[in-house]
Write a structure and sequence with these properties.
- By secondary structure, the chain is mainly β.
- Helix content is 4%, strand content 42%.
- The chain has two helices and 15 strands.
- A hairpin with a 5-residue loop joins strand 13 and strand 14.
- It is globular and about 50 Å long.
Length: 180
């Protein structure tokens, strides 16, 4: 995998928020990603270790090495067929990565949705602005309080939550439609 854009390059990306018709306040966060020459909408998944696509999206690309720990969601079983392809390039905003491995996760009819995971997102500063439906990537804007990002051994981002009666540590997972 070859990153062709340095981390200091900034990029603003539109978020496509699809609201859940059954659960108030829940939904999916999607981004438009160029995979090779194809524009695809992928779930932006800060809780997913690997990026994955459907067999239809993967079809033109050569086989690659399957991930050692395939995508399975934070608590679930592994997804996909445990095979991978290598896309010649993948681009989100101004960030382009060459020779990017993608896990293949079934077909559009029976598999999970395509997603952009931590293998693409890690090492980047992400500023989610849900009220504006935008994502700023690697921008140097001032923050109210700088906090280190805590991660699990698989790289899942943890956040500290506080309220009047207590506190807890949670997972920052934009791919989870419902958060408990």
């Amino acid at each position: 995998m070859n990153t062709t854009s340095p981390l200091r390059d900034s990029s603003m990306v539109d978020l496509h928020i699809v609201h859940d018709a059954e659960v108030d306040g829940a939904g999916e966060v999607l981004v438009e990603v160029m995979i090779g020459e194809r524009l695809c909408r992928l779930v932006l998944d800060t809780g997913g270790a690997t990026s994955q696509v459907t067999a239809e999206i993967a079809r033109p690309y050569p086989a690659g090495e399957p991930p050692r720990e395939p995508g399975r969601g934070l608590f679930g079983e592994r997804s996909g067929e445990h095979r991978a392809v290598v896309a010649p390039r993948i681009r989100l905003g101004q960030i382009t990565v060459s020779d990017f491995p993608l896990e293949v996760a079934g077909t559009a009819a029976d598999g999970p949705p395509p997603l952009l995971g931590l293998d693409f997102l890690s090492g980047r500063r992400l500023n989610f602005r849900f009220s504006d439906a935008t994502l700023d990537i690697d921008v140097d804007t001032p923050v109210e309080v700088a906090r280190p990002l805590l991660t699990s051994r698989r790289g899942h981002p943890h956040v500290d939550l506080e309220w009047d009666e207590g506190s807890a540590r949670g997972i920052w997972d934009t791919g989870a439609g419902v958060t408990i």
